[in-house]
Write a structure and sequence with these properties.
alpha/beta, four-stranded mixed sheet, globular, 14 strands, binds N,N-dimethyl-L-histidine
Length: 302
């Protein structure tokens, strides 16, 4: 929360995902304007067989899996091609893991389920490096990392990977600005609710007095940084108090707090960048509009 005193003010995006935030995000994924989830699933459905054939693994580890609905395509391909396997989703949300476990038990009994209730960075430590593994990181969650968390994440992930391991990475691509901006300013106002909900979460955590009635949501595509930026903007001059830290800040009218970024990628450039983390490109899958990319990469080593 110290980032609120930085200039410009900003917040760590993981505060977005309290119970209400997680529920709102699930609903965002169903919105007509929010093409990411649907497009990624279409690619996965079509390419799952090729991905599993190219990555001869025994285990699939999914980072930030949620209910792991999309991963079912990979697990089914694993069963078809290798009869058996292990699925180890890592997530901070227990309800998502339970849903995924129950689905596996009912529909994919050939797959051993080992869910891990943890932040994925913390889950890396418990990964067996000797078992050939496909790491899966979907949904373009890498877009929510700022440059320093991007480097930290891929350094830790690459370190956790063994020499026979692969990574399947979902990345939303740079595209027409209107398509991008509409996806983050939907007509039902769900994205606004999702972004502003972070202030209620912070009030609960810090006993602060952010007032949702005195702020509005603003988002835009920053072409220089190739990212959607999502802000809470104060509609009046107000004092925000943090009693547990014995401090406060003045939030002036029209001043904004950056709540989340969603970076958009050029897949070729992203592949080049990932070579710095010893992750080499194997295959690239995309949709007919070339809106979203699924990159299959292999840890360098053998
Ligand atoms: C989770 N993440 C990839 C979403 C995104 O598109 O950046 C979060 C989101 N924020 C607003 N809408 C969706």
């Amino acid at each position: 929360m110290r980032t609120l005193l930085d200039q410009p003010r900003w917040l760590e995006a993981y505060h977005l995902y309290d119970d209400r935030g997680s529920e709102l995000f699930e609903r965002i994924c169903e919105l007509p304007e929010y093409y990411l989830t649907r497009t990624e699933e279409t690619i996965l459905e079509r390419a799952a067989g090729q991905i599993i054939a190219a990555a001869p693994v025994q285990c699939i580890v999914e980072l930030g899996a949620g209910s792991a609905k999309k991963t079912t395509h990979l697990l089914m391909a694993q069963i078809q091609q290798r009869k058996t396997g292990i699925f180890a989703p890592i997530d901070v949300s227990l309800p998502g893991l339970i849903l995924s476990r129950d689905f596996n038990r009912a529909h994919l009994p050939q797959i051993q389920f080992h869910g891990l209730h943890a932040r994925y960075e913390d889950g890396f430590a418990s990964i067996d490096k000797t078992l050939p593994t496909l790491f899966v990181f979907l949904g373009s969650t890498i877009g929510n990392f700022n440059p320093s968390s991007f480097v930290r994440f891929f350094s830790q992930l690459s370190e956790a990977m063994g020499p026979d391991d692969y990574l399947l990475l979902g990345a939303d691509r740079v595209k027409n600005v209107n398509v991008l901006e509409r996806a983050y300013a939907d007509s039902q106002g769900l994205t606004a609710k999702f972004i502003l909900n972070v202030f209620s979460h912070i009030n609960r955590l810090l006993e602060s007095n952010f007032d949702l009635a005195k702020m509005r949501y603003h988002s835009w595509y920053n072409p220089e940084w190739q990212q959607i930026e999502m802000y809470g903007v104060s509609t009046t001059s107000q004092e925000i108090c943090f009693p547990s830290f014995n401090t406060s800040l003045r939030w002036e009218k029209n001043d904004r707090i950056l709540v989340e970024i969603s970076r958009k990628f050029d897949p070729e450039r992203l592949q080049q960048q990932l070579r710095f983390f010893n992750l080499n490109p194997v295959q690239h899958f995309t949709d007919s509009n070339e809106w979203f990319s699924l990159l299959l990469l292999k840890k360098a080593g053998r």
